[in-house]
């Protein structure tokens, strides 16, 4: 799970990093300035490491009051404008924040460059402009501001406003990570886990995740938990993975909720509790996680930990499929094919199964073969069925291989098989 914008995602910790410029220490300007700084500064600003705070830790009413007074005393201060804009933004008042961010960014204020750059990149409260967003983030990153460095890393990582470049992404994640930014530490760990811009190195990945976990970072907890669940770089430890997922879930992290639910559902590393798993899947689904919707739909379809409800399963599969979860599209197609929770509807069955097959999902490819072999809403076409079965079999899907042998072998008789995916 890579970090999101604003919650962004090495050679090992001792690796050399090319130096970047650091913002000059601010000149304190009196009690009003100090009060504003204490209320709204970032801990990653030079000179404010001991009093700065995360955006969600800001007492927005107090910060807006203090920084409004400071700006009245120093109307030309880009730093105060940046802090006041940050306080407005944390309060959800982008209309008041944007003009201040514009002015402060124009004067090179790193807080404004980072936050306003992110806003432009994601279209958060302003028209989306990824290229300008990347330009502002670059200015802030080159000035040494960790928040901008991490966000610029994401922009390189996903090609937002500039050419995708994993090497540059890893460079900027590292610059922020070495300043102690937990999201960047987790993001850099993922680059090592996936071998993007750096050599794949599960030991290095775990080391960066552990630094993020030490700060209570939910992304780090989930990512380290997944390494332990899969036994990557160290022996698998499902109990420890479950504990890390629980820490993240307790912070409301949807990935932690989903992953802990999976272990509870299957009794891996924890005592099985499918009802508790269903509750956690629901919490993650409520936050929009497509995979959690798919997993919860499976429980409703099977009546596992919840009362069996095909209609509810159908709704959840549809939401998950619309969110890009192709396994849900496979299962949604089957409900329409079999008339579970709905009337039999071959057109809808074909639509959703084809969607998943187009993404090369092997079970969907097999099920498309079943549809064409049996003429379910389409003209029966043995050659097309064989083609789909072959594509699925080529990916190692055994049921498709069996279907292929059945159609092309000496006997060429028998019923075709279809199945759902978990």
**Unreliable stretches, pLDDT < 50, 5 or more residues?**
1-28
Q: What gap, in angstroms, lies between the N and C termini?
A: 20 Å
Give the C-alpha Rg: 26 Å
The secondary-structure element order is HHHHHHHHHHHHHHHHHHHHH
Average pLDDT works out at 92
| Beta-strand content estimate | under 5%
Number of helices: 21
| Principal-axis shape | elongated
What does the main sheet amount to? none
DSSP strand count? 0
Give the helix level as a range of percent: 55-70%
Please state the structural category: mainly alpha
Task: Summarize, please.
The chain is an all-alpha fold and 422 residues long. Helices cover 63% and strands 0% of the residues.
Could you please describe the fold and organization of this structure?
By secondary structure, the protein is mainly α. Helices cover about 65% and strands about 0% of the residues. The protein is built from 21 helices and no strands. The longest helix has 14 residues, at about 60-75. The chain is elongated, with a radius of gyration of 26 Å.
